[in-house]
Amino acid sequence: MAFITLDAHKLKSNFDFLNTFFKEQHIDWSVVTKILCGNKKYLAELLNMGISQYSDSRISNLKVIKSIDKNAQTIYIKPPAKGVIREVIKYADISMNTDFRTIKMLSKEAQKQGVIHKIIIMIDLGELREGVMREDFVDFYSRVFEMKNIEIIGLGTNLSCLYGILPNNDKLIQLSLYKQLVEAKFNVKIPFISGGSSVTIPLVSQGLMPKGINHFRVGETLFMGTDVYNSDTFEGMENNIFKLYAEIIELYEKPIVPTGELGTNLEGEEHNFDEEDYGKTTMRAIIDIGLLDIDMKHLDPSDESIKYAGATSDMVVLDLSDNSKDYKVGDLIEFTMDYMGIVRIMNSKYIEKRIVNVATESPATT
């Protein structure tokens, strides 16, 4: 059976790195846990690290976090749909919002449950994903300010996720200025300016982050050591916390080119083959994962001599060339993954999830 591993020691190393970094900058940060897809084993490991705040875009994942530690502070990080209002109030201490009608429903539900629900109002600074338009923001704030059982604790923005609009000093200064504006106009204090994410971490290192930005939401950099802004890895951070292992279930020398009339495969693709490959053979391995589990473009064999030959719903075919490593049926093939590859695998109920310290344990026997 195929399985994914999480190296707890390396994850803790990345957490300590970021925690020290943000403390030195006097910045609060929340761990975005959506890459873990609500896996209780992995979330429990994360909670043991002393993280104070958790963010997710799935209510079911926040529910798992609360089941592990009811005192964990949780943030729902997308505008709530009306069908999850009750659960948002129950399982999210804070939610990010952009719509007046939605906040009105949150207010009514918070009154029913007898709680004060905290919100962060998101402002669109050019990414054109979620966020109140800048010219409408002050009027929007004034209307929400009067709602019962709603406490506005922050302003925020999202950049880079949809169109790749990169954050810069100018955009983030705008966010800080909105804080100053509403504090002066409404005689309030706004504790959090949530303008930071994995992509904005390099701006802090370069001294380009406005001082008013005091809250970050970080997922990818914690779990992958990624410098998202520069498409690189941060020095001193681990980038192989997750690995995938799939078992060879068939291994034969076979022709490179199939025989018969060519049509389309299950994804509607047509294949063409080089004339020079006709009559040649190669060692082909089938492993026990498929397109239901993973998109192969997000997956790389650790052994660079292995090439991807194709996939169906439940099986992936690999080209081992002359099989110089002498792989056999039953052997495990190790893969590294990018962010979306990990999320796809974590969402598959057919892939076992394990926790290991790769440096000291064999993943095949854990």
Automatic annotation (TrEMBL):
Highest taxon above the source species: Bacteria
Keywords: Isomerase, Pyridoxal phosphate
Transmembrane segments: none
Listed cofactors: pyridoxal 5'-phosphate
Keyword check for Aminoacyl-tRNA synthetase: no
Keyword Isomerase: yes
UniProt domain Alanine racemase N-terminal: residue ranges: 42-225
Protein name from the UniProt record: Alanine/ornithine racemase family PLP-dependent enzyme
Species of the source: Flavobacterium litorale
The organism's taxonomic lineage, starting at the top: Bacteria, Pseudomonadati, Bacteroidota, Flavobacteriia, Flavobacteriales
